[in-house]
Design a protein that fits this description.
The complex is a heterodimer of chains A (about 350) and B (about 325). With about 350 residues, chain A is an all-alpha fold. Helices cover about 70% and strands about 0% of the residues of chain A. Chain A has 14 helices and 2 strands. A two-stranded antiparallel ribbon of chain A has the order 1-2. In chain A, helix 2 packs parallel to helix 13 (about 295-315), helix 4 (about 90-105) crosses helix 11 (about 240-265) and helix 8 (about 195-215) crosses helix 9 (about 215-225). With about 325 residues, chain B is α/β, with parallel strands linked by helices. Chain B has 2 domains: about 10-155 and about 280-305, 3-Layer(aba) Sandwich (Rossmann fold); about 155-280 and about 320-330, Rossmann fold, CATH 3.40.50. In chain B, the strands form 2 sheets. A 6-stranded parallel sheet of chain B has the order 2-1-3-4-5-11, sandwiched between helices. The longest helix of chain B is centred in the first third of the chain and has 20 residues, at about 1-20. The chains are: A mainly alpha (about 350), B alpha/beta (about 325). Chains A and B meet through helix 3, helix 4, helix 5, helix 6 and helix 11 of A and helix 1, helix 2, strand 7, helix 8 and helix 9 of B. Chain A: Its main location: membrane. Chain A: One of its GO terms (molecular function) is transmembrane transporter activity. Chain A: One of its GO terms (cellular component) is plasma membrane. Chain A: Part of the binding-protein-dependent transport system for D-xylose. Probably responsible for the translocation of the substrate across the membrane.
Chain lengths: ~350, ~325
């Protein structure tokens, strides 16, 4: 099969330390399919919508992508680790509600609420991981349970504490301006307004890539996702890794939740339902296998970008909105198929 | 396990010390308590028997609008010495089953919404057959009488949309975007239809994902960037108006933001001029009147409306009225 002679496995050499050409290496990357898909969608909308290529339009697309991407990164890591999290969407709302209501009810500095929210959100993540490793039930059941409980608690607690289904405004409280700077500000680069969520997003991608590719924890994640029992047999702390991954998702939910709170300053308690699927879709388009053990953080970012481009591109192109969901679905399916095809080709020529 | 407990201990201690250390001298619960100090608590004003009324709506979970309807109904129930039961389900079939359950419970009166009239027809008929008076609220003005309800209390969505269209004409707008946050909601389409009917300019529809505010914001932003000639954005729910304001900033547009329904933020926005106008259907009144009219019917066989719907809207609210309403929106009754 192989074209180059030095890439042919010989009896003495281990196939794992096989040298491959740079092109092969590139073809073997999990995010390649999604990059090709994203480029196709980009070119498509650049041709179909006049306003798509404007700098301000691109910053809108990037903002849409970043709010998905912040969650898609830890969700991708979790999926590489062989699990997934249905509670991720409402957890974002929970995190925003906790900060807002804690600050308000205690009349505390807003930063105190932000800190308490981090602890509470991480605790929810730890709960997911702990339940999963203790009960050995599938993550589908555990996180579905958490999803329903959080949805109910978001509504129930908000109604109980605030008397209405949305929180009270905290915009006039101390610490709000500085927290808004951190979580929901906008700065301009060369005349283009850039939202700070984009910075958070890129930072998370960088950190996650570093963890995955350069640290021992990264190897553990791939190992537990690939084969849990084999991983345990060679001494990988499977439970710790999984709990850590769920707490990673919780951290992402905290960042996304604080953004929600500080950009709109009032939180609707019923929000977030359905978004968990968006995050999973972004990770899957980005090359994460649903079965685990394969994928990348950069891929999830490309997946989020693809989602952002498609959902906003339809608006820029001014298409009939009745077909919006159909179009989105078709795009996603195509991108994923392309992704799978490229990967198959890459693996066949190895 | 021991280490885990230590960590939890540290976390709790940290949270407590943080909250003690960092207090806000502005806003928050303390400011609200000060406002509330003067507010009165309701108590029964009549000594009629303690009847039980059930209200079953098509509201989804956590809807701010229905929260106000419910609080209106509850306050009327306190005053009228009514045992008030509230339930809701956004699936028509489930809502009909809830009505059936109320009939089985032999309540003394039923308040129901007819967002999907066909699905509710049999349930309402069953209630009437059991001798339970029914009042329809909010949606279903066309079907209410036919189904045998005493009266209908609510706003005609098309008429409300028409009022918005006229208001836009008055404000000399040329190109409007109607932002729908629930694809497939008949009432939402009717509102936009109404706007289209009376507005002299063009109306475009924009469907957004109502459960994700960042998505709503970026979609409106994208729309405003695409077409710079848009000079009005009409949102169909109060929480989306504020998001549209953010989108307008992001897109550097000077379109006017107008909205259906009211809340504290909308009142504040109208007051400081970031919003143009709001069209209110007075949800508090829909809940309050429904309970009160059922009570009047049981007590005195009174019926209001003479077979026609009793309209609670549209009421156009601009800067001039916003000031007076601000405090009412804060306590969740407007």
């Amino acid at each position: 099969m192989s074209a180059t002679t030095d890439a042919k496995p010989s009896a003495e050499r281990d196939e794992r330390i096989l040298r491959t050409s740079p092109l092969r290496k590139l073809l073997g990357r999990p995010e390649l399919g999604s990059v090709v898909g994203a480029l196709a969608v980009f070119v498509f909308f650049a041709l179909a919508a006049d306003s798509f290529l404007r700098a301000s339009s691109l910053s809108t697309v990037l903002y849409a992508a970043s709010t998905i991407g912040i969650m898609a990164v830890p969700v991708a890591l979790l999926m590489i680790g062989g699990e997934f999290d249905l509670s991720a969407g409402v957890m974002v709302t929970t995190s925003a509600l906790v900060s807002s209501m804690f600050s308000y009810q205690m009349t505390a500095n807003v930063w105190v609420g932000v800190g308490v929210s981090l602890l509470v959100t991480l605790a929810i993540g730890a709960f997911n991981g702990f339940m999963l490793t203790r009960t050995r039930l599938p993550s589908f059941i555990i996180t579905l349970g958490t999803f329903l409980m959080l949805t109910g608690m978001n509504l129930g607690f908000t109604k109980l504490i605030d008397g209405t289904v949305s929180t009270k405004t905290i915009a006039d409280m101390e610490g709000f301006p500085s927290a808004r700077e951190v979580f929901a500000s906008t700065f301009t680069v060369g005349g283009v307004a850039i939202k700070i969520t984009i910075v958070w997003w890129l930072a998370l991608v960088a950190v996650a890539s570093w963890i995955l590719l350069r640290t021992r924890a990264g190897n553990w994640i791939f190992a537990v996702g690939g084969n849990k029992d084999a991983a345990r047999a060679v001494g990988v702390p499977v439970n710790k890794t999984k709990i850590g991954l769920y707490m990673g998702v919780a951290f992402g939910a905290w960042v996304a939740g604080q953004h929600l709170l500080f950009s709109y300053d009032v939180v609707q308690s019923g929000e977030g339902v359905g978004n968990e699927l968006t995050y999973i879709i972004a990770a899957v388009i980005g090359g994460c296998l649903i079965t685990g053990g394969y994928g990348s953080a950069i891929g999830s970012a490309v997946g989020a970008l693809l989602f952002g481009m498609t959902s906003k591109g339809i608006v820029f192109a001014e298409w009939n909105p009745d077909w919006f969901k159909f179009f989105l679905g078709a795009m996603l399916l195509l991108a994923t198929l392309l992704n799978a095809w490229v990967r198959k080709r890459a693996e066949a020529t190895k | 396990m021991a280490r885990f407990r230590t960590w939890v201990g540290i976390a709790v201690a940290g949270a407590l010390s943080l909250s003690l250390a960092g207090c806000s001298s502005t806003g928050g619960k303390r400011a609200e308590d000060a406002r509330k100090a003067a507010a009165a608590q309701g108590k029964a004003a009549v000594n009629t028997p303690r009847w039980t009324f059930a209200m079953i709506t098509h509201s989804g979970d956590g809807d701010t609008f229905w929260d106000i309807v419910q609080s209106g109904a509850e306050q009327a129930a306190v005053k009228d010495n009514i045992n008030f039961l509230y339930s809701h389900d956004d699936e028509a079939q489930q809502q009909a089953q809830l009505v059936d359950a109320a009939v089985d419970k032999k309540v003394d009166g039923i308040i129901v919404t007819l967002a999907k009239p066909d699905a509710m027809k049999a349930a309402v008929a069953r209630a009437r057959k059991a001798g339970i008076p029914v009042i329809t609220v909010n949606s279903g003005s066309a079907e209410s009488k036919e189904f045998g309800a005493l009266t209908h209390i609510g706003q005609d969505e098309t008429i409300a949309g028409e009022a918005v269209g006229e208001q836009l004409n008055e404000r000399k707008r040329k190109k409007a975007v109607c932002v729908l946050h629930e694809q497939g909601n008949v009432g939402h389409e009717q509102r936009c239809d109404g706007v289209e009917k009376t507005f002299d300019g063009t109306v475009q529809r924009l469907y957004v994902n109502g459960t994700s505010m960042p998505d709503v914001q970026s979609a409106i932003e994208a729309k405003l960037q695409t077409d710079k000639s848009i000079d009005a954005v009409v949102t169909l729910g109060a929480p989306y108006a504020d998001t549209a304001v953010k989108a307008r900033q992001g897109a550097n547009s000077d379109a006017e933001i107008d909205t259906f329904d009211l809340n504290a933020k909308v009142a504040a926005g109208l007051k400081d001029g970031t919003l143009g106008f709001a069209v209110d259907q007075q949800p508090y009144l829909q809940g309050y009147q429904a309970v009160d009219l059922l009570w009047l019917y049981k007590y005195n066989a009174d019926v209001l409306g003479g077979g026609r719907p009793v309209l609670t809207g549209p009421q156009i609210i601009t800067k001039d009225q916003a000031d007076a309403l601000a405090d009412f929106t804060k306590r969740g009754t407007r």
